[in-house]
Structures are given as C-alpha cells and as structure tokens.
Amino acid sequence: METGMRNLLKAILYDMKFVRGHTLQPAWFKVLKVFILLGLLAGSLLIFGLRPTLVFFGVFFLLSLILHLLYRVKTRKFTQSWMDFQVLEEAGGKVFRPIGIFYYFAILLNALLAMLASRWIG
C-alpha cells in the first residue's frame, strides 16, 4: 500500500477512535443522531425523491467533513482548545468540555446550504 493511502487510513482510524470515545456529547445523543439522519433520509426520499435527497446528503456530509477537518487541524488532532472546543488537563489526562454553540450553528448552516443546493440542483 502506498504511503499516502496508509497515512490517510491511519488518520481516519484516529478520528474514528476519537469520535467513538469523546465526551463532547452524551452517548445517548451520539446514538440519537444516527436515528435522526436515518429518519431524515427516509422522509426526504418519500417527499422529495432520490435526486434531491442525494444532493442534500452529499452536500451536507461534504460540508460536515470540512467542518470536522477544520476542527481537527485547529485543535491539533483534538488535543488543544480552539473556539468552542475546550480541552482541560486533569490528573487522568485530557478531558473535553461539551461542544459549544459555534459547532451547532455551523451544522445548522451546513443543513441550510445543503437544503438550498438540493432545491437548486436536485
């Protein structure tokens, strides 16, 4: 396997481990998000059809990936505080405070932009 692909795979695995183990959101909310997305997907397919749904979710996930990468870079792989991402040092290691308003505002903005794109393109 080429070095670039190996590094990308390592970065993805690092991020997946962080996302599964972080305390930025309660565990129940992490699970609830999956059901919310599945419900939105099913509802969108039934109401708007396949193409607008694919455009919406494609744009939403692309913008959310960009947001994730922005946080990843600015927090140096989630090890230092930046904006509403707060890392505290405690005796047991790093502790993360719940994510703040900027992140949720950015997610809502992503959803709005994705909705506009799905209406315009889809």
Number of domains: 1
The low-confidence parts are none
- Report the β-strand fraction as a percent range: 5-15%
Overall pLDDT level: 92
Distance between the termini: 38 Å
Order of helices and strands: HHHEEH
Count the DSSP helices: 4
Radius of gyration from the alpha-carbon trace, in angstroms: 17 Å
Can you give me a brief rundown of this structure?
70% of the residues lie in helices and 7% in strands.
List keywords for this structure.
122 residues; mainly alpha; two-stranded antiparallel sheet; 4 helices; globular
Characterize the structure shown.
It is a single chain. With 122 residues, the protein is mainly alpha-helical. It has one domain (24-120). The chain has 4 helices and 2 strands; from the N terminus they run αααββα. It has a two-stranded antiparallel ribbon. Strand 1 (87-90) and strand 2 (93-96) form a beta hairpin. The longest helix is centred in the middle third of the chain and has 25 residues, at 50-74. The mean pLDDT is 92.
Which SSEs are present, and which pair or pack?
Layout lengths: L2 H19 L5 H22 L1 H25 L12 E4 L2 E4 L4 H20 L2
Antiparallel strand pairs: 1-2
Helix pairs in contact: 2-3, 3-4
